[in-house]
Amino acid sequence: METLTHQNEMIGLVSIGIIILLLFLSYRDRKACRRKYKEASKKLKAKEQKSKEIIEKFFRTVSHDIRTPLNGIIGITELLKQTELTEKQQEYVNLISVSSNQLTAVITDLMEFYAFEKPSVIARDSVFSIHEVVGDVSDLLLEKVNQKHLIFNTNIDTRIPFYLKGDLMRLRLLLLNLLKTSLYHTSKGEIMVQVDLVRRFDRKVELKIHIADTGKPFSEEELQSYIRIDSEETSYEETSFLDYLDPSNRLKIGMARRIVELLGGTLAIESRPGFNNSYWFSLIFEDVTDTQKKYSSQLTPLSSLKVLLIDGNGGSRAIYRQYLQYFKVRFEEADTIEKALSLLEIASNQGDPYQVVIISEDEAKEESTQFARLLKTNPIYNQPNIIQLCGTPDVLTSQDAPTRPFQTIISKPVKLNDLYQALAVLVKGADSSQTAKMGSGEPFKLRILLAEDNLINEKVAVATLERLGHSVETASNGAIAVQKFIEKKFDLIIMDILMPEMNGLEATRRIRELERLQPSRGHTRIVALTAEAHPDDRVRCLQAGMDDYITKPFKHEELLKILNFE
User: Fold this and answer.
1) How confident is the model at residue 436 (pLDDT cuts 50, 70, 90)?
2) Bridge partners, 473 (sequence order)
3) Res 26: pLDDT
4) Assigned CATH topology for domain 47-97+439-566
5) Where in the chain is the domain with CATH 3.40.50.2300?
6) What percent of the chain has pLDDT over 90?
7) Which residues have C-beta within 8 Å of that of residue 252, sequence separation ≥ 6?
8) Per-residue pLDDT tens over the stretch 58-108
9) Which CATH topology does 130-292 take?
10) Residue 325 near residue 348 (C-beta atoms within 8 A)
């Protein structure tokens, strides 16, 4: 009996030992598995990070390599516009300009998408005009709009201050997402972008931005799907770039909602009378128009003009009416050519003829051309200047452009500034200040050092700056720029970033060190003019000691701001 008990105890001890051994082996195996899992997870994260770095390098390289020649193309095109051209040559120059601007917009769009919500990118406020922002985004989509033969209107409340301050990058990306979604769902009819002033308070303004279309209405299931989209679905980490490029992908709505939330607003999706689908949101921006007066001329009232507006589309006519009221011109409207002829004859008989006729060319293209020729050949109408509003394809591909009787052709959607410039040029006896772009003034005459290693871009920049009356010296790399800084005093240094021997960042650091050692030299303004367009690049430039940063290809008004020490 004792032997049996002893055996049972031994069996029990052995069993416990085996169990302990098994538990130990299991613990060791689990620990080894956890270690292997952590190592594999770490390697996977490292691989993902490496992939992201490769993708980022790819985006930045492609952006830089495209922007550099684009800067030369756009710059030379702008210089060509200042020379005497035949109407056909002007048509070709317009084609180059529109194509280049669209390509620039595509590159900017890609970079802004990639930069969106990267940890290293923080919200950055910029000064902008809502007219220009809506116009730039609209230009990017015009090709597809024209392919679908859609009416595309933009209506911006003229009570909105001309200059605002806010997160420009995210605002552009937000508008682009919603407009691409609207364009995908619209096969015929109209897309409308409307921006209204909601209220003013302190130095702030609240804007309501409304995008509506006549596309296929959302089903209740689609609408609820869009409403329920969680912002976590659209995080940068989980969004494929190819998904983003897919025009039908619902992530565009999700990303738009997330951007609105980051900007402090709320996105609404609804239907409203006259339109099938509608998106709107309200955002608050800072009014900085008063602070821009040092380089901005005020809008010159064109009160001496008498204008006749002809457009059969009541919605479009309402937009142009608002613009003409803003310009303070005298004007009347006609929805048909027959009514226009009657008004023209009455005005001439009363001794108060129209100086300008604005005609929108939609369906009756041949009729509007014959009408314009009639005004030019029949003395009873006093030969008014004629501005034609038409789609981009009509501007660029017309085969009879040299024989068309229009002084100016403006592509739709018509921007406030484009219409102003056209009217200012046609004012009888208008001086050069009237033909200046709204929001731009005459810059001071400066001694400028331009550091640029690309010969074409150097020639373009020098020609542009000298045409504005400035004196310019050049340096082909940062080392030469530093040496010239030591030898002479400059009011402004425009510095490229990627240059041989010494890049722009290092050159700037050395110039700032020289200024520190020689306080009597004062502070020389240094501005980066570079094809490095990633938001992180701006931070690098400012940290190196630069005062400002503009990307290639630059716009004329951006250069004017720099030249006026904004």
Assistant:
1) very low
2) 449
3) 67
4) Rossmann fold (3.40.50)
5) 47-97+439-566, 306-433
6) 10
7) 177, 178, 180, 181, 244
8) 666 666 677 777 767 777 777 777 777 776 677 677 767 766 766 776 676
9) Heat Shock Protein 90 (3.30.565)
10) no
Structure token pair of residue 550: 């503009």
* For range 306-332, the mean pLDDT: 86
Alpha helices in 427-473 (DSSP H): 455-467
Give the pTM.
0.60
How does DSSP assign 263-311, residue by residue?
TT---EEEEETTEEEEEEEEEEEEE-TGGGTTT-PPPPP-TT-EEEEE-
CA 523, 529, 535: angle at the middle one, nearest 5? 100
In the chain, the amino acid numbered 469 is G
Question: CB count, 10 Å around CB of 234?
Answer: 23
- Per-residue pLDDT at 238 exceeds 50: no
Q: Which residues 6+ apart lie within 8 Å of 169 measured at CB?
A: 112, 115, 116, 124, 126, 535
Q: Residue 468: what residue type? A: L
At 172 the three-state DSSP class reads helix
Distance CA 508, CA 302 (A): 45
Residue pair 521/489 in contact by the 8 Å Cβ criterion: yes
- Which CATH number is associated with domain 306-433? 3.40.50.2300
